[in-house]
Amino acid sequence: MSIIEDKRVLDGLRDLDQQVIGAIYDQYFSEIYRYVLYRMGDATVAEDIASDVFVRMIEAAQNNKAPTTNIKGWLIGTASHAVADHLRKKYRRPEEELSDMMPDLSPSIAAEIDQREQNRSVKNAYAQLSPDQQNVLALRFGQGYSLEETAMHMNKNVNAVKALQFRALANLQREVGEVDYE
């Protein structure tokens, strides 16, 4: 998108132009959804949070607090805050998960149980990471961002992102141990 197009989009958003809002949603929803899905690991929750990000964008525009320079950056930042809000609420009111031991009619039930246990182990290890470490992994591996793009979104320099990523991966490996990813 060129600078002129960016300005038109930002102006349209501030004016609550339905076509502009629809275009922003069409362009960025899947990216925001993937980011949240990577952070949360639950498709239903990810869809709800990603939708909430766009509701927050419209509310910000209505209150004259719409993004003024970078819509994508604003959306990713808002998604990060929405994930943190959701995790805070979940921490305050823990939910009991349904058992993963539901009958499975597939021939390799042992492999399915092993995979579920590995996924649970990785999810638990991921939850032990700091929010910055979770964010760097979500941006780098969930979104496929380069080190430079990740640094820009996190307001850090590239070397700080490299160190953060290294520590996050080392912590995951330490928590999970040797996992067979066939």
CATH superfamily of the largest domain, by name, is RNA polymerase sigma factor, region 2, helix turn helix motif
Task: Figure out the total of helices.
Answer: 8
- CATH architecture type of the largest domain: Orthogonal Bundle
- Derived from helix and strand composition plus strand pairing, the structural class reads mainly alpha
Fraction in helix: over 70%
Overall radius of gyration? 19 Å
User: In one word, what is the shape?
Assistant: globular
Helices and strands, in order, run as HHHHHHHH
The biggest beta sheet is recorded as:
none
Mean pLDDT: 82
| Terminal CA distance | 40 Å
Low-confidence stretches: none
- Beta-strand percent range: under 5%
What kind of assembly state do the chains in view correspond to? single chain
Please tally the β strands and state the result.
0
Q: What is the count of structural domains?
A: 2
Using the coordinates above, name the CATH class of the largest domain: Mainly Alpha
CATH topology of the largest domain: Rna Polymerase Sigma Factor, Chain: A
What does it look like?
The chain is built from 8 helices and no strands. It has helices at residues 3-14, 18-40, 43-62, 71-92, 109-127, 131-142, 147-154, 158-176. The mean pLDDT is 82. It folds into 2 domains: 3-92, RNA polymerase sigma factor, region 2, helix turn helix motif (Rna Polymerase Sigma Factor, Chain: A); 109-176, Arc Repressor Mutant, subunit A (Orthogonal Bundle), CATH 1.10.10.10. It is mainly alpha-helical.
